[in-house]
Amino acid sequence: MKFVIKGGRKLNGEISLSGAKNAATKMMVASLLTEEACSLENFPEIGDGHITAELCRSVGSKVDIQSGRLDIHTPEIKTFRVTSLTRRNRIPILALGPLLARVGKAEVPILGGDKIGPRPVDIHLDALRVMGAAIKINQNSYAAEAKNGLHGAKIALRFPSVGATENTILAAVLAKGRTIIQNAATEPEITDLIKMLQKMGAIISLGTNRTIYIDGVDKLRGARHRILPDRNEAVSFACLAVATGGRILVKGARQDDLITFLNMLRRVGGEYDVLDDGIAFYRRDNLRGVEVETDTHPGFMTDWQQPFTILLTQAKGNSIIHETIYEDRFGYTKDLNLMGADITVFTKCLGELSCRFSGENYQHSALINGPTPLKAANLEVRDLRSGIAHIIAALIAEGESVISGVEEIDRGYERIDERLGQLGADIKRVH
Ligand code: EPU
């Protein structure tokens, strides 16, 4: 599937945020921890939701997704093996904890690397091992067993991985005793997952210094939860407003989740008004170059650098993006250069700090020289976030761009073509 996009229009109007993809899918997995029914409101109709529904159904869940609501019920785990998925995302590894907790065994497919880096799961597996799981790495799967059940443990993560923090929490809520996770990730989607688990009967506290305490309970019950709005969508739409020179009210956007982004947007020359029902974004003056370093929460998120780079191609002077979360997340800058951008990537750390990739051969820093007008191009989507950057670039480029492989964008952005069309974008989906 492709998008055909004609650039050059200012986008104006209102757009409502969907529920956060990176919370919704984890909450579906969390529902496997109880034999009672759970429902999720503000559920995004995205590809990743359907892929995760397939995973849950494969182990015995009944799943019903209808107009912004998901009902899920797993009275019995029918199999501990998640091996026959037709489509993949990063979620199956998170099923290890709930399956171990409910049936003492779990087997999930090996996910492999993807287009943004190797994405290993060693931190997940180490944590589960400390909690009493024996894990075998087969050619195509991770097979785990906890003969005597999982027990609480003190676990210091070597890096505050989002997925490993979630996996450990999901395993710990039904484990025997107390689990302490040090150096945990603290992303808002994790807090929202904790809120859902608390409604289900879990005992979880957030301590200072990235520490999470979980006191295992015997049983969890069903719950109804409203998923937090997607802050990654909010940033994408904010960049769209500033890039096209329009004004977009992003309904549901929460200042709390976006503080670092809002500061950076103002530095570059964007502006925003925080309103009761969302945040309105627009351009204040000519854009100017800035230095950005991606980081774990509450830093500037790695999923924001791609749409933000489009602004930097239009900003006067040099800008730097130092990507410290993923090794290989600048492939899309080649596409932008084809469109007329001037971006060079480096293996050294640009900017003030050296990061854990220092001395490695990863192209993880980008120097952007602007402003450069962009012209239309034919592009192939590499991954979700660079896909949205392609769309924003095409919307400010002169001429007609064709973006193929948009299924990848549909994985995380609900009906993006229709919603952008309502803001005045000239975008058509071609099958
Ligand atoms: N890492 C390890 N070992 C592990 C786990 C992670 O070395 O066991 C490394 C990764 O290779 C990576 C870094 O730690 O370099 C961060 O990975 P993390 O585990 O924090 O990320 P994730 O859980 O795989 C989630 C989101 C990503 C988002 C990151 C960072 C989901 C499904 N994915 O990934 O979102 O970029 O956190 O915030 O929640 C997206 O939505 O497009 C997306 C990629």
From TrEMBL:
Binding residues annotated for phosphoenolpyruvate, in chain numbering: K21, N22
Transmembrane segments annotated in the record for this chain: none
UniProt record, GO biological process: cell division; cell wall organization; peptidoglycan biosynthetic process; regulation of cell shape; UDP-N-acetylgalactosamine biosynthetic process
InterPro entries in the cross-refs: Enolpyruvate_Tfrase_dom, Enolpyruvate_Tfrase_sf, MurA_subfamily, RNA3'P_cycl/enolpyr_Trfase_a/b, UDP_GlcNAc_COvinyl_MurA
Annotated ranges, domain Enolpyruvate transferase: 6-420
Catalytic activity of the protein: phosphoenolpyruvate + UDP-N-acetyl-alpha-D-glucosamine = UDP-N-acetyl-3-O-(1-carboxyvinyl)-alpha-D-glucosamine + phosphate
Entry similarity comment: Belongs to the EPSP synthase family. MurA subfamily.
Name of the protein described by the UniProt record: UDP-N-acetylglucosamine 1-carboxyvinyltransferase
Gene designation per UniProt: murA
